[in-house]
What does this fold into?
Amino acid sequence: MRRRRFLLAVADHSLLIAAAALFLAPVVFILLTALMTNEQALSARLWPDPFQWSNFTEVFHQAPLWRWALNSFIYSSLATLGLLLSSIPVAYAFSRLRWRGRDAVFLVVLVTLMLPPQVTVVPLYVMWAKLDLVGSLWPLIIPNWFGDAFAIFLLRQFFLTIPEEYLDAARVDGCGELRILSTVVLRLAKPAIAAVALFSVLYTWNDFFLPLLYLSDNPDNWVASIGLSQFRSLHQVQWNLVMAATLLVMLPVIVLFFLAQKAFVEGVTLTGVKG
Amino acid sequence: MWRRRGTVLLFLSPWIVGFSVFFGYPLVMSAYLSFTSYDLLSSPRWIGLGNYRYLFREDPEIWTAVRNTLWLVAVLVPLQVLFAFGVATMLARAKQGAGFFRTVFYLPALVPPVAATLGFVYLLNPATGPVNTILDKLGIDGPLWFNDPTWSKPSLTLLGLWGIGNIMVIFLAAILDVPRHLTESAQLDGAGPLRRLRWVTLPTVSPVILFSVVIGVIAAMQYFTQAYVAAAVAAGQASQAGSVSTLELGYPEGSTMFYPILLYYNGFRFFQMGYASAMAMLMLGVAFALTLLILVNSRRWVHYQGAAR
It folds into this structure.
């Protein structure tokens, strides 16, 4: 009886299960290849025999993966820190302070969000070149310390949902706007801030265009994405090792997702504020 | 009054500085450089409309790049939206394991694009890749995928469909938000699943579809990483020794040379920064026009709940 019900459920979801299998297949084949010997990876075989787990230690000898991860970590953490510190007050000014022309100026923020980064890339490169910073991580990090359009947009949307009474209560108590922001708003907006931080970490870890532009000529400062893209040409390495490195670069993102998923749900239920 | 104005300025100051230094100034400079010949070493030399003349009349590569980018807008974006919508509809109906399925469909969107691309170039490797191996066992002669100019963009499309997680999640939320009484009353009136989809679900979800199309078109215009990495790796495989860099641009045969890729090569490989700036200006104009066009046209087919038509 239970078996029958299980089979019925499978039939009911057959299309979904087939689609899910297709979505999982790439990762499964990448993992299987990462466990093959070089000869197997170059043959038409699909199943590794024997399983060569040592590939995952071998890649660390073939390429400075730790170095790349460290650079990625520096980029991610400094960029995210600056992005939060600079975007939070701006988002507050666009949502909870009243001033003339606010909506018009906010439209400008939205336009900067829509336009392709390629539009300004040449003069920016020239600027960093003149400052002699091409090849360092600074051209990637510094712009984040001056407000990010996407972060401003997201935080503003969330700040708008905070009831005015909370802020007014603080104002009656004689708090300045900076006090209100740093106590009342920051406490209530924790889940939104966590989400913005998460997006920023993901974006910087995955970013390829800017690292390619500014770091290509200086392998010491390569981040994970650029290192991985050069991995094959580095020493004519084999597919099995490339796939092992590929998995290792995917891993932090996937771990972060599962950790943050929980933090998210908790954050949302903790605040008790709903829009 | 003055204190309040001071507070606003203080709060806005990071953005004011950032906007001026990292957006306003480079935008103006980009416009200026587009009228010059500039190689970064010697100072820019004014050449008037020279870059634009070359751009519109002479450059043999620009139209390939424009065509390829339009291909993304015409094929990749609609396919992504359709596919994401299909998956979201299935997910909305799932009774068991909804959380598991959602995770499976969402996660690929988080995978670093470089890693995902490397994975797909390997999976679709013509000689020994798993996909062609399996096709071979089924008696099908698999294509050359990333190594064949007619198949390289479809290969990138497969990669793009794998990463639809973000749109899918937005669609799913919108579909689950469709008021129950609407679907139920339509059912009572004898509407089958297809007609309910057409006349109830689609109209209510249409603002989200518009949003995803706009985001998709903007992303298609900037499409870079996947094409760049796929071309470099596939080209590297094709020629075991030497002269890879000239082969790489749009490998194979310019079929993956998208507009931003050509801009990058012109500006930062060939150091024709004046010309790259002219390309950037054209991109700015098109991006602006396209965004306006989509937003204006949307009034005709987007239905906002509770809004007067």
